[in-house]
Amino acid sequence: MDRPIEVDDANVDEIESVDEDCSRGMKKYNQKRLGLKVLQQRIDDSITVHEEQQEQYFLSDLQC
Q1: Is residue 2 part of a domain?
Q2: CB within 10 Å: which end of the chain, N or C, has fewer?
Q3: Range of the domain at 40
Q4: Which domain of life is it from (predicted)?
Q5: In a domain, 44, yes or no
């Protein structure tokens, strides 16, 4: 059922890129990304808070 699509090259416009290898966009992206150490610290903090909440819940459950 699928037929190949015919393209008329005469009606195709080429859009020029500012930087052929997209390096400028990648630099901006990488500058906005958080580093591995920051992400690991956030994960560790989240786990610590969760463990403290679990401990408080367990302790309060024992007192009842």
Answers
A1: no
A2: N
A3: 25-64
A4: Eukaryota
A5: yes
Helix or strand run (H / E) with residue 40? helix 36-63
Q: Confirm if 19 and 25 have CB atoms less than 8 A apart.
A: yes
| Sequence-distant (≥ 6) Cβ neighbours of residue 41 within 8 angstroms | none
Distance, CA of 53 to CA of 32 (rounded, Å): 32
The tokens for 44 are: 């560790």
Show pLDDT as tens, one digit a residue, over the chain (64 residues): 577 777 777 776 666 656 666 777 778 777 888 899 999 999 999 999 999 999 999 888 887 6
